[in-house]
Design brief:
The chain is α/β, with parallel strands linked by helices. It is 39% helix and 30% strand. It contains eleven helices and twelve strands.
């Protein structure tokens, strides 16, 4: 199972939001590149980056920071936030990003996602972010008017091979991962799912790991790493099968 340390970028800094609220922001580092290097040094094998400014703007904003991260580390990076055109996807892949995460366009322009999957295959990932049972779009500011499993099935049908499922109500709250919903999504679609939102302890890592048999391949960890509630090295050890 893969542990994905999260780096959320806003205003060029590494921040965390609570429940996706831009008015509930905590700055954890002035330089996201330093955090990327730290997580790589602690054993991360994949990094999860979100361009929060991009999510609001509807287009990538922190491209210079993203470039600096990809130049500084040797591990692969996946990124989301405001990626809504084929040109956006190609631009990010060209600067060294390994996987690009699309969200709003999965709801609003499924044909674009189909084209992206045909062109870039597994380098395209769909982020399904859910609040009160409905998919949220436009930087989590609007309801997409569709349920998570309905959207996931639709995306599987257009060639998507991997989904990141985020329970917004738990994101940045340290209240535990919604393993039940994540597991259900994987079983319903038959494609790989990465859990996101709410990791608070090693017990959450263990719970996600137990869902691997249903297709849950990893978990994104953010605030718990930054507050020290979870040690990355310990989480990786547990994910690999070591003792906690």
């Amino acid at each position: 199972m893969i542990i994905f340390p999260a780096i959320d970028i806003r205003g060029g800094k590494c921040v965390r939001l609570t429940e996706g609220r831009f008015d509930a922001e905590t700055v954890f580092a002035d330089n996201p590149v330093d955090m990327a290097l730290r997580w790589e040094e602690e054993g991360a094998t994949y990094l999860h980056v979100v361009d929060l400014d991009g999510a609001l703007a509807g287009k990538p904003v922190n491209l210079n920071v993203v470039k600096a991260i990809t130049r500084a580390i040797d591990i692969p990076v996946q990124i989301g936030g405001g990626i809504r055109t084929l040109d956006n996807i190609k631009m990010l892949l060209d600067v060294g990003i390994s996987r690009v995460i699309v969200g709003s366009v999965a709801v609003k322009q499924p044909a674009l996602v189909e084209s992206a999957c045909a062109q870039f295959q597994e380098q395209v990932v769909v982020g399904i972010d859910v609040r009160n049972g409905q998919v949220a779009v436009e930087g989590w500011g609007e309801s997409g008017g569709i349920g998570a499993e309905d959207l996931a099935v639709r995306m599987a049908g257009v060639g998507v091979s991997r989904i990141i499922y985020t329970d917004i109500s738990r994101d940045g709250t340290l209240t535990g991962v919604n393993v039940k919903a994540t597991r259900s999504l994987a079983k319903t679609t038959g494609i790989k799912v990465i859990a996101s939102g709410g990791v608070s302890s090693i017990e959450d890592i263990i719970a996600v790991k137990e869902a691997r048999e249903d297709g849950v391949e990893g978990v994104i960890v953010g605030k718990a790493l930054y507050t020290g509630a979870v040690s990355l090295t310990q989480a990786i050890q547990v994910a690999k099968g070591g003792q906690n």
